[in-house]
Design goal:
Layout (H helix, E strand, L loop, with lengths): L24 H54 L10 H195 L11 H9 L45 H4 L16
Helix pairs in contact: 1-2
């Protein structure tokens, strides 16, 4: 079994103060594992030696017990009988042989016991000495390991302290360097942002200028196009207005000419009517009944007519001719013909009286 004083060494303490950029845990743990393995091996050897010593002691005690038993048996056998007379010769001889045998066995047992005792004592002494040497060596190794462990702890603490100081200095240096880099990065970033902002503002200004110029150009083009279209529309409207004015003037002139022509035709028709009236007036004398025509009614009465015949058969009147004036645009006026006398003798009193009927003014107008 492991002594209680060795329990403080196994396992070794591994509590170290951690610091930034401190000790290498892997190396320290490997070293401690190696030391612990050596301690375990030495303790195992010590335990094996102690077990072997205990075994030899048990064997020695067993041998001692056997020697004591044999000694008791020898003592019992060596006791003389109470009455030898009671023993026959054979028994006496047996007793003698037994005594001799017992003495021989006793001697041999004593020799063996002494030999075994000597060897056991020597082995026990050797084992005790070896155990003591091992214990002393283990104590020395434990003390050395403890001293080494303390030295390692002190060295580790010193190294940790040194590394802590160096880490603090390094951290301060890195903080200063990081602060300097941060400020430099901020300055570079501000300069870059300023340059990009300037470039963007310039680009935006250029784009605005280009957009403004493009808009002005498009406005100018649109204005020119609108002006061109307006001029074209104005020219077209003026042309159409001129054409319409010309056509209206032509139509007005043609209408005026037509009106003048119609006025001329009307005047000509009026003159023709006047001439017709004059011709009719001159023809009234020709329309009077002749003396020979008065005999015709008497003859009709003789024939047996119920009603008296008209006084005289109207002689056919000559057709008055109306001079027509040909016009290239106006159709010729129709010739005015006198109405024939009715068969029943009921002539128009105006016709009988020689008064011509008025001619409608529409007779001389051209048909549309």
């Amino acid at each position: 079994m492991v002594p209680e004083r060795d329990n403080g060494l196994l396992p070794l303490r591994r509590e170290y103060t951690q610091a930034w950029h401190g000790f290498d845990r892997t190396e320290v743990r490997q070293y401690l594992d190696h030391v612990e393995a050596q301690l375990r091996r030495l303790i195992s050897d010590r335990d094996s030696a102690a077990t072997q010593v205990a075994t030899l002691q048990r064997e020695l005690e067993t041998a001692r017990g056997e020697v004591a038993k044999l000694q008791d048996r020898v003592d019992e056998l060596m006791k003389p009988p109470e009455r030898l007379e009671d023993l026959d010769e054979r028994m006496q001889r047996t007793v003698q042989l037994a005594n001799a045998r017992a003495e021989e066995v006793t001697k041999r047992a004593q020799v063996a016991a002494e030999k075994h005792w000597a060897s056991s004592t020597e082995a026990s002494t050797k084992l005790r000495e070896r155990y003591q040497r091992l214990v002393e060596e283990l104590d020395k190794q434990a003390e050395a390991l403890h001293s080494e462990h303390e030295a390692a702890l002190k060295e580790t603490r010193a190294e940790v302290q040194r590394l802590t100081v160096e880490a603090a200095q390094r951290r301060e240096l890195l903080d200063n360097e990081a602060e300097r880099k941060r400020r430099k990065i901020e300055r570079d970033f501000d300069a870059k942002i300023t340059a990009e902002r300037t470039a963007h503002e310039k680009l935006i200004a250029d784009q605005r200028t280009a957009s403004k110029q493009q808009a002005e150009r498009r406005i100018a083009e649109a204005t020119a196009e609108a002006k061109r279209r307006l001029d074209e529309a104005t020219t077209e409207a003026k042309r159409r207005l001129d054409e319409a004015t010309t056509q209206a003037a032509q139509r007005t002139t043609a209408a005026t000419r037509k009106v003048e022509r119609l006025a001329e035709i009307r005047e000509q028709a009026r003159k023709n009517l006047a001439m017709a009236d004059e011709v009719l007036s001159r023809s009234e004398g020709l329309l009077a009944a002749l003396p020979a025509e008065s005999v015709i009614p008497s003859a009709s009465k003789l024939v047996g007519g119920d009603e008296p015949a008209p006084a005289a058969a109207a002689t056919p009147k000559p057709k008055p001719e109306v001079v027509s004036v040909d016009s290239p645009t106006t159709p010729a006026s129709p010739t005015v013909k006198p109405k024939p006398a009715p068969a029943n003798g009921n002539a128009d009193p105006k016709a009988e009286n020689g008064t011509p009927q008025p001619v409608s003014q529409s007779a001389g107008k051209p048909r549309s």
